[in-house]
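Input chain follows. Return structure tokens only.
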Amino acid sequence: MILTPKLNNVCSVLLLFLVSDYVLADSLQSEVIQKSLVSYIESNANELVRMHDILVDDRKDNSQTDELDLQILFHEFLISDLSNKKQKKKFSALCISKSDIAEKSTAYRAELFALLSACYGFSAESNFFKAASHGIKSGKMMERAVEADDGNPFVYLIKGIGDYTRPAFAGASKKNAKENLLITLNLLNQTDNKDSLMEAIAHFHLGNIAHLEKDNSLSLEYLERSLNYAPQYKRASDLKKKIGP
């Protein structure tokens, strides 16, 4: 999932997923998620690794593992996105090794398959010898995500981002990306409980695509909308500054 300019975009999607109403209601889990979110915003991969290791240790002594497994997978995904090639390869492999969680899940099936799709994408990016096979598996995981819930805006958000951040040889398409990101926004507009982070992330990626297509005026419009939803969104702010007034 290579992007120019260099932005670890898919990670921001996880930010959304972690705080979304789709997943977590328990206050203790929300506390864990918020800590990981702060570390993500600060691009503090070392802290995420530390938190990940604590969760792994907790899982050894906890028979109720569903939520812990989910949180561990989230951290592996975040770390993969923030890391250099060596660590990305390690943590994307850990993430992929939990594919059975998605198979067994009922509550989080679509979201987990979408996350696994992205993890396979990270693996393809960081491992030349698995680039083709894991690129294909990334697509298969996304198909499973859509099959599980074809009205889930999170799935289309991941799909849209993957459409333009994957390498060209794997079928990158800005056109498809824009279509799926607009589907995301349309689905969000059909719900009463709008998710401001999802809105922010979708608008950011539409803005980034516009920037890559040299339409900086349109890019700034999308980035302004993104920052209206989430003023703390560092990547949207950084890209806006890069484009200039």
